[in-house]
Design goal:
By secondary structure, the protein is an alpha/beta fold. It contains 7 helices and 10 strands. The chain binds 2-amino-2-deoxy-6-O-phosphono-alpha-D-glucopyranose.
């Protein structure tokens, strides 16, 4: 594991974007595993800027996102599909038909999850970007008695609902369930890049990367991955 501590969010975002940009340059038809939440917004801003400058070309790139709230369609401004379109895809030359986010409105959630895992296996993720929740969740893999391998539906932890309420009008509007890529999909990525900032995340980062591997701290499974980079900024 490479653990990089930086001074602030701006530097963190530039470094994370540089790692993703290097992947796109080295393999123009790579598969990017992408994340939502507030942490990657700065990373995406840099990628958009470098695309606009002519330094990056996303025309052959595909992407697979980690998760989506159940019950929200892609037009809903709280959905993760909407987030991806409006924080990245609409501003770069990626072919949107090659960008995948779980369908939160699927009639048959089980079939949607199985199809998502099939897609992950077929496409293969070159680099997976991750944030981390305050309870150690990655994607929406919440603390549990065991790690779940497959893409699956989860009931969100009350602390996750509370943490994500800032994006909604009221806490009651936060969906209670979501579809998330499982640990199998995340661990199958050739490279993993996890970014976290703020003093509130310090404790969980220490637990996840320097404590025991424990499904109660979902991100701790990444200690078993052969190519993980963590970029952390306390500010
Ligand atoms: C959500 C997402 C995660 C993300 C986490 C942290 O729960 N499902 O993928 O890592 O929030 O979000 P933030 O980066 O806003 O702290």
């Amino acid at each position: 594991m490479k653990f990089i501590t930086v001074e602030n969010y701006e530097i963190l975002s530039r470094k994370a974007a540089a790692i993703i940009a290097a992947q796109v340059i080295a393999k123009p038809d790579c598969v990017l595993g992408l994340a939502t939440g507030s942490s990657p917004i700065g990373t995406y801003k840099n990628l958009i800027e470098w695309y606009k400058n002519g330094d990056l070309d996303f025309s052959a790139v595909s992407s697979i996102n980690l998760d989506e709230y159940t019950g929200l369609d892609g037009e809903n401004d709280q959905s993760y599909r909407y987030f991806m379109n409006n924080n990245l895809f609409n501003f770069i030359n990626i072919d949107k038909s090659k960008t995948f986010v779980p369908n939160g409105k699927a009639q048959d959630i089980k079939a949607e999850c199985e199809a998502y895992d099939k897609r992950i296996n077929e496409m293969g993720i070159d680099i997976q970007l991750l944030g981390i929740g305050l309870d150690g969740h990655i994607g929406f893999n919440e603390p549990d008695e065991f790690f779940t391998k497959e893409t699956h539906q989860v009931t969100l932890d009350p602390s996750t609902i509370e943490a994500n309420a800032r994006f909604f009008q009221s806490i009651d509007d936060v969906p209670k369930t979501a579809i998330t890529m499982g640990m199998g999909g995340i661990m199958s990525a050739k490279k993993v890049l996890l970014i976290a900032n703020g003093s509130a995340k310090k404790e969980i980062i220490e637990k996840a990367f320097f404590g025991p591997i424990d499904p109660k701290v979902p991100a701790s499974i990444l200690q078993l991955h052969p190519d993980v980079t963590v970029i952390f900024s306390e500010n």
